[in-house]
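Narrative summary of target 7.
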Amino acid sequence: PDTDACAYTNAGSYANNPRVSVYDPTARDYVTANYDIVLRAGRITVEKRPLHVQINGEKIYDGKPLSVSDWRVDYLNGTSLVAGHTLTAMPTNDPWTDAESRSSSVHQATLTIRDALGRSVKENYDLTYYKGTLTIHKRPISLMTPSAEKVYDGTPLTALEVLVSPYSLPPVAGHTPILVICGSGTEPGQY
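Modeled conformation, tokenized:
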């Protein structure tokens, strides 16, 4: 018998209309020609697998927009991909570089689901999209100013240098911390 005729993998509804043979194990032969077979075909239905997706991601400010390595696709409500399937997707947001959070949706046209052989299997999933959040966090940076002292001589004492703490993240390449407000002292005392 042709058992593969009734094996369906992809989502859809199919007529269960296999070829039927009658086998006589005593004679070790098919005896189908001796029968007038009437087959009432049933239906085989493979339901689409529910998949609830959301794009979330975050990173620390680095002067560059969020990239594929900064976000992830989360599966919600206990849904998941079939083992061996992979999903790729992009958020709908335009790229931005400033520290802030934005609501994000899955850009449905960019979503692909592929099996282990690289074939598209997206049509086998019942996709539901949820809003997520993409965040660029403010870059934590610790700055120090030096201490300075001298004996009063009537001229200003300044310490205009700004140093990045060795225990801090450095500024983004090309960014330099500068003192905007600075005081100078000419009279004895602490400032």
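The chain has a mean pLDDT of 89.
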